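Input.
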Amino acid sequence: MNKIIVLIGAPGAGKGTQARLLEERRGIPQISTGDMFREMKTLDTPLAKEVQHIMASGMLVSDDVTFRIVQERTAREKGSYVLDGYPRTAVQASQLEALAKEQGKEIRAIEIDVPRDELFKRLTGRRSCPVCGELYNIYSRPPKNDGVCDLHPDAKLDHRADDNEESVKTRLDTYEANTAPLLKYYEGTGRLQKVDGTREIEQIYKEIEGSAA
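Output.
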């Protein structure tokens, strides 16, 4: 049976990397809420116009409208797909159950589990080269010379403004508060699979791929 794979993971857990690998290697498309909302800004459908009006007025898009966006976008996919950023709440998870039934698909919820202190290091320690985009981490993958790219010694490494300690703490607190009911929902249905996200990327991928098969 085709599947709807719900990938759950905190900022820095590697969710985007794993979704991309599933798309590249297995042809399972990654469908993100961010992409869906961006698409809504350019379409000329009744639903798109409704969303454009809501966003222009500064109001929040309701669960029901978000569900209709997901429903419309995923209707194009005949096979399995990965949902990135949806559902975010227990209400949305319940709505997704109805969609899965309508599409004749099975839901697999997979949490990429990484301890908070490790996430903190991954996010605050990130550095990148402004010339080639090479990524480093001062804790786990530092450059040979402090603060400069190995490939471009004249390039001072960038540190994203929102990767400071205070911002990272806020982002992780927000994620944990928002996601706890969702995890509880999928645990209650017996369909939450936890994957150890501290291992090598390939090891994590093999476990997720097995669940997606």
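The longest strand covers residues 106-113.
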